Amino acid sequence: MALKHTLFALAAITMGASAHAQLGAAVTADLGTTGAGLHLVVPMERNLNGRFGANYLKHDFDKRSGLVDYKFDGKLATFDVLFDWYLISQSSFRLTGGLVYNGTRFKAVGVPSASGSFSFNGNTYSTSDIGRLEGDVSFRRAAPYIGIGWGNALTPNKRWNFATDIGAIYQGKAQVNLIPRGCTTSNAVCGKLASDVAVEELRLSEEAADYKVYPVLRASITYNF
Q1: With the CA atoms of 163, 168, 170 and 176 taken in that order, what torsion angle do they form, in degrees rounded to the nearest 10?
Q2: What long-range pairs does 58-61 form, CB within 8 A, spacing at least 24?
Q3: pTM over 0.85, yes/no
């Protein structure tokens, strides 16, 4: 939460500073790989705009990993502090950089096989013995963003505009936590189960490494007021 507060404080400071650049502001309604979003756009300098907002996407899916099926219940929640630099005055092309508070998180539940069992690290366990398999996947909270885009929400004498973003959020290595809840058999078996689940957790982490960089494709409708 401290990082989120820092981002909002940075946004407030830069928005206040923009008053020295020129008057005017705009709002955007966005849709893309970061979900649905809203942003406030304010002028910073002649060719520089600040963009501050939030995005949200609910994303549930099923995935098979190794010999285990999982149901993932996820949310992609991000808060942006972005800066759009227009290399040429009156041009719609821009470079964008900034920082994202990344609240993306996935809850996972293991689905037993038709025979009512799980197989980890070459060993098979009955659900009546190990109970429920649960886990979660999260990423680094402070994630840098870099990209390009077209469109300027603060185009003079034009209320409505259209804009696009192409970029990437570097969210780093995923943090995976996998836990069997309710082992009711012997201590020896429960200990072995914990060891085998740790191996499964490591393998899931290696698979999640493919998502260190999250692609951003976003279209926006902007209103200049």
Answers
A1: 100
A2: 59/106
A3: no
Residue 186 neighbours by CB distance under 10 Å: 10
Q: Helix or strand or coil: residue 70?
A: strand
Is 203 in a helix, a strand, or coil?
helix
Strand ranges for 86-141 from DSSP E: 93-102, 105-111, 117-120, 123-126, 132-138
C-beta of residue 153 within 8 angstroms of C-beta of residue 224: yes
Closest CA to 78 of 221, 218, 222: 218
- Of 89, 68, 67, 220, which Cα lies nearest the Cα of 156? 89
pLDDT per position as a tens digit, 148-179 = 999 999 998 889 999 999 999 999 989 999 99
Which residues are CB-neighbours of 161 under 8 A, at least 6 positions away?
26, 151, 152, 153, 155, 221, 222, 224
- CA-CA distance, 205 to 48, in Å (whole number)? 39
Domain 2-224 has CATH 2.40.160.170: yes
The distance from CA 176 to its chain's CA centroid, rounded to whole angstroms, is: 15
| CA triple 51-30-2, angle to 5 deg | 50
Task: Report the C-alpha gap between 2 and 10 in whole angstroms.
Answer: 12
∠5-78-55 over CA atoms, to 5°? 120
